[in-house]
Every structure is written in C-alpha cells, then in structure tokens.
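Example record

Each entry pairs one chain with its bound ligand, FE3-S4 cluster.
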Amino acid sequence: MLRLQLTSEEKNMMEGKQGRATQKSMEILVTLGEIFDAKCMIDVYSVQIAGVSYDNLGEAGLEFLSEMAEDGKVKVLTTLNPAGMDRENWEALGIDKEFAINQNRVIDAFSKMGIITTCSCTPYLIGNVPHFGQHIAWAESSAVCYVNSVIGARTNREGGPSALAAALTGKTPKYGYHLDENRYGQVLFKVKDPLKGTDEFGALGKIIGDKLVELGKSIPFITGISSATVEELKSFSASVATYGGTALFHMEGITPEYNKYPKPSDNIFEINQNNLKKAYNELIDVDLKIDFISIGCPHASIHEIAKIASLLKGNKVRKEFWITTARPTKRIADEAGYSKIIEDSGAKFASDTCCVVAPIKGRFKGMMVDSAKACYYGRAKNKLKVKIGTLEECVKEAMR
Ligand code: F3S
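Structure tokens for the complex follow.
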C-alpha cells in the first residue's frame, strides 16, 4: 500500500496506460517519493538532465536511454547538460572519432524523446528559465544551486534517471527543496571585506562549502555582499555546490527569499580578506606549467564572451584556449562579431561541452581557469595541475 497519494492521471501512468517508458518513469518517481516520505507528486515546469557525456554514461547508460526512447516522449520543456564534445567542432578540439560516434548516439536517444539538445549547464541563460516559486526537476549541481537561490525556483538535485523520469511524466515527488520547511538558512556567514570577479566568488564558495561539510550543514545564509553580477553568482553557485554539496543559499539583499525565513542565530562565521586569500591560494598548484586555458565553467555568458573578445582583439594566443558555452550563446556571439575576433586569435569555442566532461585526460599538464569548480574537477577528474585567476589574467596567460 502506497503512502504517496497518486491522482488518477498518475495512476494511469503507473499502470502503463501511457506506454512503457512513462510507466517505468512513474515507478522511479514513486520509489523516490516513498524513500523521502513525499505525500504526493507535483507538476514540474521544466527539466534539465545531467550525465550526458558518453564518458560518464558508457554502454550501460546508453542502453537504458535507448530503452526509454522506444516509446517515451517528454511532457515538459527539457534541456541537457554539457556533452563530451562540441557537436559541430569536435575534430578541431581533438576528440576522437569513436567517441564522437558514441556521443552522438546518446544525443540522438535524448532527441528522439523530444528533449531539446542544447547541452548546457546554464540553461537559465538560454531559455530554460523558471520563475520565482515554480517547481522544476533539474540535475546539474551548479544550475540547481543557481535556480533555487538566485531565481527562487524549487528543485531537488535530481540524478540522471529521476530527471528523465520527471521529463517523461511532467511530475516529481513533493519533498526536499520543494517544501518551505526545508529552505531555511542553517549557517550564517558574514563577509567582512569586498570581493569581485568570478574567481573571488569561486573562492568564497570554497570557503563556505568546506565549512558546511565540516559542520554537516547544507544551506548557508550570507551577509555583507553589496552587489553581485549574474556571472559572479553562477560561479559562486558552482563552487559552493562543488565544495559543500549545497543546492540552496540565501544572500542578504541579493537573493529573493533571503528575508522569508529568520537569519540563523547560532553557527555564525566571519569571512575576511585573509580567509579569501588562503582559499584562493589553495586553488593554485605549485610547480605548474600552464598549457591549457579554459573559460566558461559554468558555461560562459554573452557578457563574458564580449569581454574575452575585447581582450583578444588584434592579438594571437600561444596556448590551447577554450571558451566553453551553450550553442545559442555562441550563435549570439557569431552575430555580434565576437566569435570572429576570438577565432582569429587562435582561441577555440567549445560549445555543448566543457573542460571537465570532455575526454581530455592526459592531453594537458596545467590548466588555468577563473572557476573554483573547474579547479576541483581539473585536479580530481583530469589529473591536471591548476591555477585560478581573473578572466583577464586567463586571457593574458593564453597570449603569453
Ligand atoms: Fe558546467 Fe562543466 Fe563547469 S558542466 S559547471 S562547465 S564542470
């Protein structure tokens, strides 16, 4: 006997009246709902699916997708996380043919289900944009943290199968971050000194994330930030999600729910210039020889691309330099003339992919980035030595 109450439409799905893939999806969601003690399902406005790279999925993952694609069709707007390669420019980026064939098999299976195959971790910059309070089912950790916190939409961090199941049913079990009572700030961080740039906001995310792990908490409430750009907030979201497993934060004066819940009154920490400097230095390896620069973790915005173009104009790069971004953002950059300036310099766009999910292990020794998240995965996944810097410093390094 289920504790979770299903509507007649949901029962029909469960009984297979809408096809095998929908039935399997509802089974996944009901199991999840029972584990987390959900009382009912809720409709979701959109879905974002992670685990798209063939590097992560392998044949077993592809088999599951192909089975779901036999009769599964999405019921809501659904987009994908970055894949293992740029779908148009993979050869120039050094991806081997066999990988490309397998990656395209994965994308084709998603496409068959009606999923929009823009492969990006910043879907909120390219049209998959929920509004305040809307329930969604997203999977990419940085995007989950961004939409929960900066937009005030509501999502748990979905796994690959549960996100796909939400896409094929338009439903998710109502638990976790969908409920008010689970959105309270737990630890107060008072930032005492000014900070700016994607690199410094990344370092802040590392400090807060590390502290949350130490305390066994997950939702920070941050004061003392006077302003933050979209790019700084996306970098912070990626970093705090990486180092702290955080899916939601509140930032006084900046995020929409900061005054909805009381400020935490115990667990109070101050962060000053010295803490920031220490965290920053921990993102720079010693004995490092940089042969790869990558900007766009999370995927670069059009503002970042415009900035890179202005710095590269009339210059040449001397090292492998990738700008990773969503394909629709790249198309805007094409129209604005930024792409030509960037490509004339020798830098490369890597749309649909990134320096973490692309199979680059062993190709480079040292990577420079403006992202604390890329530092973490550059070390952990691709065994690179890393250095964080400002976007300007990264471009300068590429030209050196
Ligand atoms: Fe996005 Fe790849 Fe960074 S998925 S957040 S660019 S690791």
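The radius of gyration is 21 Å.
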